[in-house]
Design goal:
This protein is mostly helical. It folds into four domains: 202 residues, Up-down Bundle (Growth Hormone, Chain: A); 55 residues; 181 residues, MFS general substrate transporter like domains (Growth Hormone, Chain: A); 52 residues, no CATH class. The protein has a three-stranded antiparallel beta sheet. A hairpin with a 2-residue loop joins β2 and β3. α18 packs antiparallel against α19 and α18 packs antiparallel against α22.
């Protein structure tokens, strides 16, 4: 396969003397992507088991998540630069191999510090999987089939976060938390073999790499340092902000991290925009479609991860579900996501303007979130399933069209950089959504508890009626009038906390619904984005 590769009109990839069906390539590259995205959520439900197994505090075990996300975030925007210098195929295979090895090491860890170190390795390797696989799909399919290609990628990017908590809960309950890492071994080995067999670099990437070899390496250590500073501070603030009381942190940790974050971000943009070969290329943001698509995917994945964190917490804390059964309530939405992705892929292949699907998907997403905000504590499991199905279906309508619109007008030479930044914002949106959901619920719970207290006094007939009905039964159990009264008070307080907590969750869902409607207003600002416009893409 030393000859150049090209895409035939029928969709097959010519490499040397034989043609490779692009769908085989798609299946091969999506497997490691699914594995990597799954690992961003599968460990969330196992933190208390990890803490117990390694004799660590539960709050300290959160670094298992934070360290992975921070390492992942550092690599994502520079994956295009690494691919250009190392070769995309080489980088992709190396990332799969290191990710699989580090998964084995995570499962074998004997202390929390070891696990965090191996999670950093896993995150650094995993950061190259999403953008590389998406770039391979963009190059493997002809322009008119980009919608179908992004549909395949969407199955991994959307389905993995949906089933992650369910799978993680089941494995942890039935086996051990170590198996949430060990399951990556057979998948990683199979993916490595298939990608080694099927994936090749296209001719333009080989030419680009040959030109880079003639030039001095001139590694941008300043840019990498600024990037690491910015993203590490960002991830720590998002992970620990609510625990440390955000900008009211008495020890000044959050304040220092915020200052370092903004300093690093400004320095990174200024430094990279003045370099000829930047390690993080911001040039794709000159395209209006790409910039708006980045904002939409950032917020949409914030809604996805925010609701995916809050809904299981709601079911477990107020409805008495365990982690596995809470996951079962969330899982049916995955099937509807795949159906939506398949339908959307067909519509895009027929030349439908992606903007219509993006707008429709955002509105469906808003409807699903609003529906969840109208729930109460007397509903059945199916009354949680259907709002979730509507919400995730909206995301399924958005994903492939948004990817088509984002990259349609990006030159091929900037595609690697654009895919890396897009993947970074998609992942960081999830981190922000998770942190935002936690902060909203905790603060709104305090608000609602105070508001409910306003009418819980001795002059309220409903309160007196509650005590009149409750205390006689408690007195029969205890034989002590004072104890019965105290138990009635505690019972009323428990009801107040339960209602305040539920209202806080519903407020968060309503805020996510409003955010989705606001995103729909951005769609008319985008350029027409039909897949058949691919001939308008200019190659540098």
């Amino acid at each position: 396969m030393s000859a150049g590769t090209s895409v035939l009109s029928g969709g097959s990839i010519v490499s040397g003397s034989r043609a490779i069906n692009p769908w085989l390539i798609a299946m091969a590259v999506v497997i490691p992507t699914f594995m990597e995205v799954l690992d961003t959520t599968i460990a969330n439900v196992a933190l208390r088991y990890i803490a117990g197994g390694l004799s660590a505090a539960v709050t300290d075990s959160e670094w298992v998540i934070t360290s992975y996300l921070a390492a992942n975030a550092i690599i994502l925007p520079i994956s295009g630069w690494i691919s250009a210098h190392l070769g995309r195929r080489n980088y992709f295979l190396l990332s799969i191999a290191i990710f699989t090895l580090s998964s084995l090491l995570c499962g074998m860890a004997t202390s929390l510090s070891q696990l965090i170190l191996f999670r950093v390795m896993q995150g650094l390797a995993g950061g190259g999987l999403q953008p590389s696989s998406q770039a391979i799909l963009l190059d493997s399919f002809p322009t008119e089939k980009q919608g179908a290609a992004q549909t395949v990628f969407g199955v991994a990017a959307l389905l993995a976060p949906v089933i992650g908590p369910t799978l993680g809960g089941y494995i942890t309950d039935e086996y051990s938390w170590r198996w949430i890492f060990y399951i990556n071994l057979p998948v990683g080995i199979a993916a490595l073999f298939l990608c080694w067999l099927l994936v090749q670099d296209p001719e333009y990437l080989r030419s680009q790499r040959a030109e880079l070899k003639k030039q001095p390496l001139n590694f941008d250590i300043v840019g990498l340092s600024l990037l690491a500073l910015t993203l590490v501070c960002w991830e720590i603030v998002l992970s620990k902000g609510q625990e440390w009381d955000w900008l009211n942190d008495a020890f000044g940790r959050v304040q220092v991290l915020v200052i370092l974050f903004f300093s690093g971000a400004v320095g990174l943009v200024v430094w990279e925009t003045h370099r000829k070969n930047p390690i993080v290329n911001f040039r794709p943001f000159r395209d209006r479609n790409f910039a708006i698509s980045c904002l939409i995917i950032f917020c949409a994945f914030g809604v996805l991860y925010g609701t995916s964190t809050l809904l299981p917490a709601l079911l477990e804390s107020l409805f008495g579900y365990d982690a596995f059964h809470a996951g079962l309530v969330l899982s049916p939405a995955g099937g509807f996501t795949i159906l939506a992705l398949v339908i959307v892929g067909g519509l895009l292949s027929r030349g439908l303007d992606a903007r219509w699907l993006i707008a429709a998907g955002l509105l469906v997403l808003a409807i699903g979130c609003y529906w969840m905000s109208q729930m109460n504590l007397d509903i059945s499991a199916w009354q949680v399933v259907w709002p979730r199905v509507v919400m995730i279906t909206g995301l399924g309508l958005i994903f492939a069209p948004l990817n088509v619109a984002a990259f349609l007008y990006i030159p091929r030479t900037l595609r690697g950089a654009a895919v890396g930044v897009f993947a970074l914002l998609r992942n960081e949106g999830g981190s922000v959504g998770t942190s935002m959901g936690q902060t909203i619920t905790e603060r709104r719970e305090i608000f609602h508890a105070l508001r409910l207290n306003e009418n819980l006094d001795q002059f309220n007939p409903a309160v007196n009626s509650y005590f009149a009905q409750t205390e006689p039964g408690l007195f029969q159990q205890t034989g002590d009038a004072a104890a019965a009264h105290q138990m009635a008070l505690q019972s009323l307080e428990d009801l107040r906390e339960q209602q305040a907590s539920s209202l806080a969750y519903f407020d968060a869902f309503l805020i996510f619904a409003v955010l989705a409607v606001g995103l729909a207003c951005l769609v008319p600002l985008m350029k027409r984005s039909a897949a058949h416009q691919g001939e308008h893409i200019a190659a540098e």
